[in-house]
Amino acid sequence: MWRWTRAARRWGGGAALGALAAIRPAGLAAQTAAAELAVRFAGWTAVAGFEQAATDSLLALLPGSARDRAGNVVVTLGRGAPRRLASCAVDEPGYVVGAVTDDGYLRLRRVPGAAPAPLFDQALEGQRVTLVGDAGPVPGVVAVRSVHLARFRAAAEAPFTVDDAFVDVGAASRAEAERLGLRVLTPVALAKRPHRYGDGLLAAPVAGARAACAALAAALLARPQPRGTVVAAFTVQSRYANTGLRAVEALAGPFAEERQAALAVRYGGTPVETVSLAAADSLARALAAWIEGR
Fold first, then answer.
1. Which residues, 6 or more positions from 10, have their beta carbon under 8 angstroms from its beta carbon?
2. Together in a domain, 39 and 185
3. DSSP of 217-276, one letter per residue?
4. Residues 91-122: pLDDT tens digits?
5. pLDDT digits (tens, 9 = 90+) for 234-260
6. Are residues 240 and 100 in the same domain?
7. Residue 33's domain spans which residues?
8. Which of 103, 121, 179, 204 has a 20 to 30 Å separation from 75 between CA atoms?
């Protein structure tokens, strides 16, 4: 009851590589706008528990940053009391490869286990995805049911779920998929195509969280002079009981005050989650003022 077309590997390949490549600080002024960074950050693939490509980009972007034992990217400004924490989460809900079939298709499992929105899995059907394999990002596409055979299916057929997903990466066998660096637990997410529209709006999966992290990064690049000590943390594994944030609190705390960067969104949890770029710029200014104790 299915029809598949082998995916051309060139589909989205350049875009995927560009989205995951490290951002070089030499091309960015200290006063980089949060709106500009938000569009870049929205192109990341950083499935919870597999955030290294995104954190590598942050390490290249932020002077003085370091990766802690939990995988968070941390920047420490100033010294003395009070000791405060500003944070944002870089990870996203997504999938991992659960199995590779003999004929080269990939089956998926959701990460974390619960869907973050009612139609989260349905948004995957027939869409392009990015798999972050051992040899780098690989483009793929999720199969769809055959429209030619649809008339023979029950009208009350259950909605698409992750258990129905077959990912085509252009491999004709398990060995070919493995040669692409794909294996069980390879992270998978919708291909990121951030879209600016309307009066300064940005649409992309997890656009709100990425724009909030962009605001925090822009605040740090503005070189604020902190009152006391400020630790800025870009945390991992927020989908697992805020594991990364808890690690920062244990390793770098205690903190007299904590602030988590956040922005209001529309259509949250969907592929077109939308955030205001003007709001991201305003948040960057507010965070810079907070760091300076104003």
1. 139
2. no
3. HHHHHT----SSEEEEEEES-TTTTTHHHHHHHHHH---SEEEE-----BSTTSTT-EEE
4. 999 999 999 999 999 999 999 877 888 889 99
5. 999 998 989 999 999 999 999 999 999
6. no
7. 28-92+194-291
8. 204
